[in-house]
Amino acid sequence: MKTLDMHSHFFPREWEDLGKRFGTPDWPWMKHLDADKAVVMLGDREFRPVQSACWSADRRLEEMDRDGVDMQVMCSTPVLFAYGRPAAQALHCAQLFNDAGLELAARGKGRLKTLCQVPLQDTDLACKELSRAMRSGHLGVQIGNHVGDRDLDDEGIVTFLQHCAAEGAAVLVHPWDMMGGERTARWMMGWTVSMPAETQLSIVALILGGGFDRLPENLRICFAHGGGSFAFLLGRLENAWHHHPAVKGVSQHPPSHYCDRFYLDTAVFSADSLALLVKTVGEDRVVLGSDYPFPLGEQQVGRLVRESAFLTEAQRRKLLGANALDFLGLAAANAGAAAKAAE
């Protein structure tokens, strides 16, 4: 049973001084405390404590072996996106961290793969960097769930997603820049309340804004953290769509019609929640995602899927790896390689 974790994050051990390069404040940088521990800084402000698993391929492989993970897909952390900076600066960051991700993957003995990032605030630059990254070896792209007040149904973002489909790039949508302000500043409610709400908002915007109606069906797109609160609140959305004209937006169909157009990952930490995901989008549309190596991620990767008694062995096999191979386009690539070898 192959286990593929398609949602994990990395930070390079170090990178160039972006504040010095661009002459503006509050850029991210790494403050090392010892060989294993560091703090990601935003200018003079502490953002997040991290450990060497973020940048050490050897440690990642060691912990993958501990958890029985065969392959891991890494992407940067949204604080590196630079969506609020000029597009040329965000492009520089994308190229910098995309190349760093590939360098880390190259030390992973074939078990580490990567998703790139792009300057999503500029559609043309985003498309060009995606194409470059795919040619360089990335399997797809991680994007934030919005750019300022532009949600995923924005024309420029839909154009970018159409380009992803044309390039065969898998898309992971990750929440960031969470709503709530001071009201969610206590007790990390930005992560436990606002982050799921952000993900739900992005799925609903893509549905009601007609995004899925404009996107080709071969687009492979996944929403992190089990799609946030979407699955639990789908019934409320569906009821509103049928009974209130303002809710229909420009979508051609009711919200439930689109549940086979996207994937959700398993980072929900509850067997009941996982069962709801499988029931909502189907057993072929749920993929293992851990949010490794952060404290709010799954601490023993794959444990929820392995220990959820409601799953059959066939379903467990899909969730642990087979679905992710399809999502990432690796199943088709492996089949093609096998056919060629058999000739």
For this entry, give a set of tags.
343 residues, alpha/beta, TIM Barrel, eight-stranded parallel beta sheet, three-stranded antiparallel beta sheet, 42% helix, globular
Secondary structure blueprint with pairings:
Elements: E1 4-9, H1 18-22, E2 28-32, E3 37-42, E4 45-51, H2 57-67, E5 71-75, H3 87-106, E6 112-116, H4 123-136, E7 140-144, H5 155-167, E8 170-174, H6 189-208, H7 211-214, E9 221-223, H8 230-243, E10 263-265, H9 271-281, E11 286-287, H10 303-307, H11 313-327, H12 330-342
Parallel strand pairs: 1-5, 5-6, 6-7, 7-8, 8-9, 9-10, 10-11
Antiparallel strand pairs: 2-3, 3-4
How would you characterize the overall build of this protein?
The chain has helices at 18-22, 57-67, 87-106, 123-136, 155-167, 189-208, 211-214, 230-243, 271-281, 303-307, 313-327, 330-342; strands at 4-9, 28-32, 37-42, 45-51, 71-75, 112-116, 140-144, 170-174, 221-223, 263-265, 286-287. It is α/β, with parallel strands linked by helices and 343 residues long. The longest helix is centred in the first third of the chain and has 20 residues, at 87-106. The two termini are 27 Å apart. 41% of the residues are buried. The model has no long low-confidence stretch (mean pLDDT 94).
Summarize the structure.
By secondary structure, this protein is α/β, with parallel strands linked by helices.
